[in-house]
Amino acid sequence: MASEFIGAGWAFPVRTDATGRMALVADGQELDEAIRLILGTAPGERPMRPEFGCGIHDLVFARADDETAARIAYEVRAALLRWEPRIEVVSVNVSVAAAGDGVLYIDLSYRATNTNDPRNLVFPFYTIPEER
User: Fold this and answer.
1) Which one of 3, 100, 124, 130 is least enclosed by Cβ atoms within 10 Å?
2) CA 1: distance to chain centroid?
3) Residue 131 resides in a domain
4) What is the pLDDT of residues 79-112, one digit of tens each?
5) pTM of the predicted model, to two decimals?
6) Residue 119, strand partner residues
7) The domain containing residue 30 runs over which residues?
8) Residue 30 belongs to a domain
9) How many domains does the chain have?
């Protein structure tokens, strides 16, 4: 029943499998790729669905600090709540990597709503590093 609820879809990025057919993903991998697609798409990037995506891309030029981390956590939670109904977001923690390199790591804990299967995903987000 779980795989029927989550379904199967094209792999992202779109590719072929060993037989030359379109590669498909299912179950947990489908959710992970759907989440990465949402977080990796800026609103306005898709002409036929301009609202789709996550607002973190507006923060590319922000400083990699705690304030930016809090804004990223908010944007991630809001985007997943709107665009991925198959999951329940448990927590979003954003940590700043080494000082000044402009990398923030988004650590997402979520649960598949149909199975209560707890899962994690880490998504790196890159800002323009500060000049030294």
Assistant:
1) 124
2) 25
3) no
4) 999 999 999 999 999 998 776 678 899 999 999 9
5) 0.82
6) 110
7) 2-126
8) yes
9) 1
